Amino acid sequence: MRIGEIAALVGVTSRAVRHYHHIGLLPEPVRRANGYRSYGIRDAVALARIRRLTELGLSLDEVRDVLADDAGRELAEVLGELDADLARQEHEIQRRRTVLAALLDGPLTPDAPLSPSLIELWKAAPAATSPAAAKDREHLILLEGAIGGEALYTALRPLADDPAVPSLYERLDELDGAPADDPRIAALADDLAAFVPDEVLEAVWDGGPAVPGFGQALLADYSPAQADVVLGMMERLAARMGGRLS
């Protein structure tokens, strides 16, 4: 057989066969007097095995290792690693499909979150015109894949339709433009901290180290009096969590 014939038989291109020769993956057969390569059945079998291994997802270097091991031990090892890698890819694909299904099930907007748990949280929360509530939604999007993440959204789900939430947001909205010594600041910080359940704190705490600069950027998104409320709430929650860990 000539190179085009063996390539057609195995289902690869002549260019692939030449490449396998060039990198030493497929031994080059003897040439005829006219200079053409002459391939036999054994060459076709070797080429077919290369094709099957590459179709499984092995790199050419891994195929070389497999072919060099006559006992087949290398093949079992490489295929085991390949199977584990495919399992990870399968899990990731399923996770992405879950996200896509949640997105397709809800209103498709440019600012839609990409977390299924956050999507469910938004669906459960009543529509609100509160600027503070709108900020909270934006801040929660920042946590996708960061502090707390999915665990945080799941922990927040029971609070989504709590009747006390709108009034807390209204009180925070009322402090926009208030002086730094407004007596409502400390009282609201106390009430907000008391409203946060331990499950939410644990989700944040277990979400990994805080992102440097995130706290300052968060506070800068509020007016001075509102920022004092948020900072006071954070301080109270940190103290509460520290007491639980001591």
From TrEMBL:
| Top-level taxon in the UniProt lineage | Bacteria
Per the UniProt record, one Pfam family is MerR_1
GO molecular function list: DNA binding
Task: Tell me the keywords, alphabetical order.
Answer: DNA-binding
Q: Does the keyword DNA-binding apply?
A: yes
What InterPro entries does the record tag this protein with? DNA-bd_dom_put_sf (IPR009061), MerR-type_HTH_dom (IPR000551), MerR_fam (IPR047057)
Q: Which PROSITE patterns does this UniProt record tie to the protein?
A: HTH_MERR_2
Protein name as it appears in the record: DNA-binding transcriptional MerR regulator
The HTH merR-type domain is annotated at 1-69
Kindly indicate whether the keyword DNA-binding belongs to this entry.
Answer: yes
In which organism is this protein found?
Streptomyces demainii
